[in-house]
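Training component of the fellowship. As part of building independent skills, the fellow (R.M.) carried out the full modelling exercise for a liganded target. The chosen ligand was NDP. The inputs are recorded below so that the supervisory panel can assess the work.
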Amino acid sequence: MTDRYAVIGHPVAHSKSPWIHAEFARATGQDIAYRRIEAPLDGFARAVDEFRAAGGCGANVTLPFKNQAFHYCRGGVSPGARAAQAVNTLLFGRGAVRGENTDGIGLLRDITLNLGRAIAGKRVLLMGAGGAAQGVLGPLLAAAPQRLVVVDRDAGKARALAQRGGAPAGLGYEELGGAQFDLVINATSAGLAGEAPPLPAGAFAPDALGYDMVYGRDTPFLAMARAAGAEARDGTGMLVEQAAESFLLWRGLRPDTAPVISALRQR
Ligand code: NDP
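Fellow's submitted model of the complex:
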């Protein structure tokens, strides 16, 4: 029997997850079906309950429900999901639901394996203090950077996130001064609005990587990184890597991500 999965969000029509998981299933010979479920803003738990009752095996969770998914899983969340207070992968067992967060490992795998960049010993700037920044902060710190600074338009939010996540510093952009970073990660949604965060141009160290989690478009932040002489990369690789981690959790197999990343870039 075909095992059924879904991505649950609002809106969700734009999600590339069904295509990515269909590619993984084809390449690994797994018999799965994967669809989109648009839950009403006040109906996340109901949508999950219905999908479970209909025989679903697991689900991905996207905006704006990752925090609700964390609460839905009650006791059954991974340490990473607990630290992030956000779940993007649900595993349905008999009567119980387990929650995981694969965003952080997805980002790390893209930066270190696909882009060949070290995080250990490097100066890292994480821009944004929303769900995406929360999800990746713990895994980034675990990769042992020399320095990690969280920055947000709301300095209070940056400080609170840094404190909660054990990062040494949370700042407003105006507090960055002349500090330079080897890795500048844009975990804001600014690119979706055609904007760049108010980052001082001097923030890129020589040979830096500017990484925008927004994918599939050339954002003003990526242009800013290129203009500063940095390598500029979007979040396509992270998207595919976090999906591969979900697939591994569900199916016990790690799909090859390279062909899917390059096919997604052509679409
Ligand atoms: P949230 O809505 O939770 O947070 C948005 C963040 O962006 C806030 O910190 C907000 O700052 C900041 N922001 C918005 N506009 C600007 C701006 N013009 N200048 C500076 N900061 C700005 O969103 P998420 O954290 O969940 O997601 C952020 C992005 O990451 C999304 O675009 C999403 O597509 C992407 N993403 C990509 C993934 C991938 O696999 N590639 C995975 C997860 C997310 P403030 O606090 O000041 O309002």
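The panel noted the following from the submitted structure. Residues 63, 103, 106, 128-133, 152-154, 157, 187-190, 192, 195, 197, 213-215, 235, 238-239, 242 surround NDP (CB under 6 Å). Residues 236-251 form the longest helix (16 residues).
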